[in-house]
Amino acid sequence: QDGDRDPGGTPTPAAARFTLGYVQTGTESVWRVAQTRSIQEAAGAANVDLVFADGQGRQQIQADAIRSLIERKVDVIAFSPVVTLGWDTVLGEAKAAGIPVVLVDRAVETGDASLYRSVLGSDYAAEGRKAGEWVVWTAGSGPVNIAELRGTTGSSVADDRSRGFTAAIAGDSRLRVVVAEPGDFTRSGGEERMRVMLARFPIDVVFAHNDDMAIGALRAIEAAGHTPGTDIRIVSVDGVRDAMTELVAGRLNYIVECSPLLGPQLMALARKVHGGETVPARVATEETTFDQNQARAALPGRRY
Ligand code: AHR
Q1: Among 210, 242, 256, 304, which residue has the most ligand 1 atoms within 8 Å of its CB, making it the best to mutate?
Q2: The ligand 1 atom nearest the CA atom of 105
Q3: 196-232 burial by CB neighbour count: b if 16+ within 10 A, else e?
Q4: Which residues make Cβ contacts (< 8 Å) with residue 202, sequence separation at least 6?
Q5: 20 to 30 A Cα–Cα from 271, which one of 33, 119, 187, 297?
Q6: For residue 121, what is the enclosing H or E element?
Q7: What residues flank ligand 1, with Cβ below 6 Å?
Q8: How far, in Å, from the CA of 72 to the mean position of ligand 1?
Q9: How many angstroms separate the alpha carbon of residue 31 from the centre of ligand 1?
Q10: φ, ψ at 184 (rounded to 5°)
Q11: CA angle, 99 as apex, 95 and 103 as ends, to 5°?
Q12: Where is this protein localized, as stated in its record (predicted)?
């Protein structure tokens, strides 16, 4: 197809094709799989040639994939860094090759802000804060023992969600985080860590950094003879269909949304970067929160 027609019938040129290399963290969660699909679908719709690589949850595999995109001379590189530190060398190689880099969903920590053009994604500290605010609102007279199921150690998202949550509950004498353990954003990690935490601590509320770990935790809570959502309340982050279904059933209590549907925004951003336009250092995604009634209303239209 050469182009679209405007309502007056004048042909308008199709958006120029360019090549975008994208390196994903892996397939650790339902959210992640939905994010991959969003990027692949949006590339097709935006006339972008996508070269996709799966980082398999490992920094070295991600760095090697970025190097092969540099060799291949793609026009723009986008990636979701599995951890925050240790990217300066490979991003320096992309910069030396003249290939602009966009970070998607997770950030890196570097002293050189010129190594990437923009970060597209959620405000993870705000997500943690919203989860903490819910715990404060629903604490009653307390005391409330909280278990935190953290995401991948060393990732910006786990650090930021934890920081936002801690700030929101700070100074409230009813609340105490009695244990915090990493579950690596997976269902099996959440289930295993929850099982161990339940054996060691009395727990009233679980803050899971994502829905997959919350669902794992819920299984461990049931296996230990408690009723999830009632004996032990659970707040998590993402808003994937499985977790929304548990929320509607009253087995999970509150979800802070984190949208994986970043594909269209990424294509627009990458196109601008490729065209030499100045782009904002940070592009945020719009998100909400769900209680049981809101989840019931949103569930039928949920795409992931
Ligand atoms: O970086 C975003 C997080 O990574 C999502 O909350 C989680 O589900 C994913 O694996």
Answers
A1: 210
A2: 1
A3: ebbeeeebbbbbbbbbbbbbbbbbbbeeeeeebbeeb
A4: 145, 178
A5: 33
A6: strand 118-121
A7: 28-29, 31-32, 105-106, 157, 185, 210, 212, 237-238, 258
A8: 29
A9: 6
A10: 60, 25
A11: 85
A12: Cell envelope
CA–CA dist 71, 231 (Å, integer): 55
User: Which run of H or of E encompasses 87?
Assistant: none
Q: How far is the CA of 164 from the centre of ligand 1 (A)?
A: 16
Distance 157 CA to ligand 1 centre (A): 7
Measured CA to CA, the distance from residue 297 to residue 299 in angstroms comes to 6
* ipTM exceeding cut-off 0.85 for this assembly: yes
Q: Scan for tokens 């819920």, then name that residue.
A: 218
Tell me which residue of 15, 106, 69, 39 sits closest to 267, measured CA to CA. Answer: 39
Residue among 164, 163, 159 at smallest CA distance from 126: 164
Residue pLDDT, tens place only, 187-242: 999 999 999 999 999 999 999 999 999 999 999 999 999 999 999 999 999 999 99
Q: Please answer whether residues 129 and 164 qualify as being in contact, where contact means their C-beta atoms are separated by less than 8 angstroms.
A: yes
Q: For residues 263 and 239, what is the distance between their CA atoms, to the nearest angstrom?
A: 17
Q: Which helix (H) or strand (E) holds 178?
A: strand 175-182
Residue at token pair 């594909």 = 263
Any idea which residue has 């909280």 for tokens? 146
Beta bridge partners of 11: 5
Tens-digit pLDDT profile for residues 141-193: 999 999 999 999 999 999 999 999 999 999 999 999 999 999 999 999 999 99
CA of 165 to the centre of ligand 1 (A): 16
